[in-house]
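Sequence, structure tokens reproduced for absentees:
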Amino acid sequence: MSRGEKQVTILVVDDEQVHRYMLCSMFREWGWKCVEADDGRTAVEAVAKADFDAVLMDVRMAKMDGMEAFARIHALQPALPVVIMTAYSSVDDAVEAMKHGAHDYLTKPLDFDRLRLTLTRALDHHQVEEKRQQVKAKDHTEPVQSSSIIGNSPPMQELLEMISYVAATEATVLITGESGTGKELVAAELHKNSDRHDGPFVKVNCAALAETLLESELFGHEKGAFTGADRRREGKFVQADRGTLFLDEIGETTQAMQVKLLRVLQEHELQRVGGEETIKVDVRILAATNRDLAAEVKAGNFREDLYYRLNVVTLFVPPLRERKGDIPLLVAHFVGKFAEKNRRTVEAVTPRCMELLVQYGWPGNVRELENAIERGVILMRGDQLSEKSLPLPIQKQEESGSGGGIVAPASSLQEAERLMILQTLEETGGNKSEAARRLGITRKTLQNKLQRYDVAG
């Protein structure tokens, strides 16, 4: 198997000669070149002298164990993916290695289908990281175009180019960014440009359902599994078989649900609620969150093993305030969309209206801009969209000095978010549904944020 014109080369590190021979024979059947190392020290020397696409390494070795060898290899080549092989008794070591940059771990005896999938994703990740460095260094003179994602600004051009590259891989992707930035559009674009585009694209909002309902929604249930389960129902994982499953707001899941999700990601199999049958699934996972999952892991709110499984490739969707050059493009798009929808004629956007739209802080990001333009088109008089039909916070931003709610003195993003929520609640008279709509988040997410910031609600 070749990736592009270059043959894949895997370094296999194991002090058991029979195991090395078996693995290398299998890799050659898969079309990969295999180089052997019988201990950690030999592996480190090999990485220092030659280029590899991935390393598969045992933990327990006599001369230099896999943990020390991994640390030295990672110091030499941080982007080189290392997959750790371990017995169940040493899983904690492997998870610790993932915290420090290892790509993944596999438990012995190896499942060869899972081994091939894991190494394939490691190779995808290696190529993606190399591509990311090329994209960052590139002068984006010719805009990358998308039918659904609008943006010519440098951060959006970097994102669009990474989407076009990552889409063709099987890598699990974690899409991060504030609420309203368009993470679902990124997921849809990844699916549309993938080899799975003819398969289903299934979306699940993990924050919208209670844990018991979410479990049934994801895994399905057997008839009689609970009150009201009058028939067998297939879950979203099975519905997404041979396609893509998008787990939105993954950071809102409970620890119990995270354990169940981890099992599916590890084993690619599941059981329906109330059932005993094991069902194999072939699904690519895309997940999205507006939370800082690394911080959530440290706080004990999100399992670190699931985090490292999801965080194979990360795509960050920038907030609208960091790509203000795209606002005129977005305004033109939304004006056309809502003029047609509402059978209105919009000849132009007045200069003052555009000025206010560009200078506003957009705490709710593109979703808030879309809502503002829809409101403006509906309420406008005449054939020009003017500032008079925009929401009051945009019209009055100079008077309040808020710049649309971006609070300059805040000491952190979290503090800025807290102050933004308080300000929006004040503007809406404490109406949480309206505040959530203006902020571009769900009411449940707003309630979670109020609890997190210890704000009485």
Notes: The longest strand covers residues 283-289. The chain has four domains: 2-119, 138-318, 319-406, 408-457.
